[in-house]
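Customer escalation, tier 2.

The customer says the design service returned an amino acid string that "doesn't look like it belongs to this structure." They asked us to rerun it and document both sides in this ticket. The original structure tokens are below, unchanged.
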């Protein structure tokens, strides 16, 4: 289909750039929002209330597990829980995230060990 061929233009074959209709029938025609062809429905946000967190900051670990900030960083330094520092190269600061499943696993492992 060429832009100069008026006999083969069908409304569902139009495509638009902004408000300008680029069809071969009339290149100067504009389309309003309600006459523009619709192809998909609007995107809706999903429900994430019951999805467990995978990672969290030190404050999240404190709230969820009741561990103090110093204890969390000591466990990380000892390699007993997993964490990662996310920062852009060259920046002085970033954000430290902890793997909540590793914290959960450490607590479960500690429950099976006899108390000293």
């Amino acid at each position: 289909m060429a832009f100069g061929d008026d006999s083969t233009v069908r409304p569902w074959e139009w495509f638009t750039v902004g408000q300008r209709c680029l069809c071969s029938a009339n290149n100067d025609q504009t389309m309003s929002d309600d006459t523009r062809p619709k192809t998909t429905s609007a995107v809706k946000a999903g429900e994430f209330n019951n999805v467990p967190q995978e990672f969290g900051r030190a404050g999240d670990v404190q709230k969820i597990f009741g561990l103090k900030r110093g204890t969390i960083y000591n466990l990380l330094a000892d390699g007993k829980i997993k964490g990662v520092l996310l920062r852009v190269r060259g920046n002085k600061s970033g954000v430290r995230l902890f793997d909540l499943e590793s914290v959960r696993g450490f607590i479960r492992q500690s429950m099976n060990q006899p108390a000293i």
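Tier 2 assessment: The sequence is consistent with the input. The chain has two domains: 1-37, 55-112. The chain is about 25% helix and 15% strand. Sent an explanation to the customer and offered a walkthrough call.
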